Every structure is written in structure tokens, then in C-alpha cells.
Amino acid sequence: MMNPMFYFLLALTAVLAATANAGPVLDIDGDIIFHGSYYVIPVIRGPEGGGLTLTPRNGNQCPLFIGQERSEVERGIPVKFSNWRSRVGFVPESENLNIKMDIEPTFCAQSTYWWVTSAPSPWRSLFIAVGPKPEAGGEDSSRSFFQIRKTETKLNAYKFAFCRDGNDCIDVGKNVEGGVQGLVVSRPPFATPFEVVFVKATEKQTSSKTMSII
Q1: At CA 49, angle to CA 44 and CA 55, rounded to 5?
Q2: Cα 100–chain centre separation
């Protein structure tokens, strides 16, 4: 019978191998993000806007898109991360995962997971809308995977990237249209990376935001 220490070392080796290229994402306080809800706040605070929220485009009620609060003092709606493939308990850097606005389903969609819209032309920006929970192995599920990547701007600062095939990754930036700031997938110079920090939301704050938008 093999020594239990052998199984422990085997498991530890597997964890270290899985995390060799993917460190944990940290919140603004330097704490590892495991689960829970987090506000996404721009690194540079100022008149350009606050945290993330849901917003319509072009005068249409649906679908709703991921936008930015107009006021810098508004934290917006927190997000939750899920469905990363490595078997680590923390939210990993540079690994495909799903992002969901932590709010009850809206009248526009079954849920509020981030989805990249299809573009009519390859040079057009891809907006990020919300939609149903991605199905495992679903035909379009690749449009719902994003990565969180470290930046050099500030301690514990990150940016989002969209990596449809896992290789050709494009940063998530901002686009201003009709006074609405929306998140887009677009290469420079059409958009610059949207650099952010994560601030933990309490259950009370999440419930309050849910009641205020629906």
C-alpha cells in the first residue's frame, strides 16, 4: 500500500503544474479572489466614469450591453467569475473564464453573462452584451470566454481580454457612442485597454443594486 504522503505530493505537483502560468487575481487590497462579487472600478478615477453597469444602445431596450457608469462615484453592478478550467480554487490570471453581472435576470435575457456580439465586418469593434448562461460545449460558447490579465499601470491592476480560440487575444476597451460608454473588443488605435481594479462587494450592496435596476 502506497504511503499517503505520496498521494499528497502527487496532488501538490498537479496543483503547482496547473498554476505555473496562472497566478491568482487579486482585489484592490491584495487579497486573492476565490469566489464572491466584485465591483470593477477603472484604475484612473475621474470624469470618464465609474464602475460597470448594464445599458441599452441605439435607443433599443434589448439587448443590454456592458457599459460604464457616467459618474465616477458610482460603483455600478458587481461581477462574478466562474467556469475556469484549471482545478484551482482561486480566480486565475490569463485563463478563459465566464463573467456574469451579479444581478437577477433582466427582461432582455435569461441571465447576465458577458457575450461578445458578432461583427458585420472584421475591422468593426465587437460590443459586449449580456445573455444566457453558456452551455458546456455549446456552439457559441467561445463568445462568452474572457481572460483577466495583469497590467503594469498600478499594483493589483488588470485588464480583460477576449480569446476566442485561446491564442489570438484582443484587449477589451471602451467605446463612446451617443454619450454611452460601452465595453468593446477592438485593437488599438480604435480602443485602448480598459484597466481596472476589483473591489469586493458585500451581500447587502449586491442586493441593493439588484433592487435599484429592475
Answers
A1: 135
A2: 7
R_g (Cα) of the chain, nearest Å? 18
C-alpha cell at 194: 480598459
What is the distance between the alpha carbons of residues 110 and 14, in angstroms, rounded to a whole number?
37
CB-based contact 135:123 (threshold 8 Å): no
Q: First-to-last CA distance in the chain? A: 59
Task: Scan for cell 499528497, then name that residue.
Answer: 8
Residue 207: count of CB within 10 angstroms of its CB: 14
Nearest by Cα to 96 from 26, 176, 160: 160
Three-state DSSP at 203 gives helix
Backbone φ and ψ for 114, nearest 5 degrees, come out as -75, 135
In sequence order, the 6+-apart residues with CB closer than 8 A to the CB of 59 are: none
Which position has the grid cell 480604435? 190
SS3 88: coil
For 107-155, how does the pLDDT look when each residue is reduced to its tens digit (9 = 90+)? 787 789 999 987 554 445 689 999 989 886 666 788 899 999 999 878 8
